[in-house]
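Please go through the protein record below and see whether the fold suits the sequence. Record follows.
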Amino acid sequence: MSCRVVPLLLLCLCLTVGSVQSQGSPQDAFIIQYLERRLAQMEERLNQCDQNTASLTQKNYDLSTEIRGYLSTLNVMRSEMKSQVDTVSMRVDRMEREMEYLENKIPNQSDIEMEEALLEQQIKDAELDQLKKKAKIKVENVFCLTSPDCNTALTQIKSLKIVKRAGDTYGSWFKDPSEQSAKVYLLSGIRNNSLLEYVSLQSFTERATTPKSREIQLPFHWQGTGHVVYNGFLYYHKADTPNQILKVDLLNGTVADSTLLPGAGRLPVYSLNPNTYLDMAVDELGLWVIHADPEYGGNLVITKLDKGTLAVEYTWDTQCKSHDAEGAFLICGTLYVVYNTRYGGRSTVHCLYDIHDTIHSDESPVLFFPKRYTSHSSIHYHPGEKQLYAWDDGYQTIYKVETRRNDQVIDLSIAE
């Protein structure tokens, strides 16, 4: 609108200027200059208005072109969407027909439940048959291990004898359980490369100015307190290794054999003795090693080793926990786990595992140690003497154990 008014204003100004120039007074000259300036400004604004109009026209054209492109794209998308909707509609119709067909073919829910129950029962029966077959194989193999004179179960830990106080708070001492051996061995601490050998228990207990022991240097350090001597060989956990067991000849101090125990060494075997990862043991059936398995909830695992080659003969997973345990020992293939508190107290045996499956933990009473306050760092059973050699807070202690004949016969019918 302003662009249309401007030419009229310019015409009026020109007429006015012409009339003023004809009069020729000074005041008229000033008015003429003012009007000329205003006229120039109006011309400039007129040019700017023309430019803006052209720019807006171009933008309007570009916007129209873009909108037409969008509309074209939307039309294509609408066509595709319509096609997809039609396809989905067809598939829904087909599925409805198939569902109607299946509803007519599927049996009643009660029949399905009966078939599922039957299938579950068949699976359980198959698993039970498989377990029975494994149990039969294991029981038959265990009979090959059983000593003809080994048919006893622990009933009481009946007496206590404090033999001596020697060495550190933690340690291990024991006798060689092989026949015609009276030697006593002492390994003080939780890491070293030597041990003391005494010719007899009397020599160990004597207080004399001259040493009654022989110090034996070992080729490698040991760790923990789970060592044993058997038939003149020391079996121990090699330090700085997770699961290596060494067999060292004590006559010359050389390594006779070694082995790596699969799956062991990842967890302390007893939570109250965190420095012991492998615990060796000897009973009437031979050489054993005990360890805890984190993949089995920290439960204890017992492994039968060949005393000559250290080859693994059999392995059993037990239900006995390593938590709050301070030690364990085996009698005739039955594992007895000793529990306590971290502050020390009366040690008890309230979990056992029998490889022959004739003694059960839930059927056996809790066995108490005679001493009111104990803190064992190692417990070793001597099958010939029926005694436990324990290290109680630096005191070398002997416990007498009482056993009874276990006349229960293994029922092989469960494995048939």
In short: The chain is about 35% helix and 35% strand.
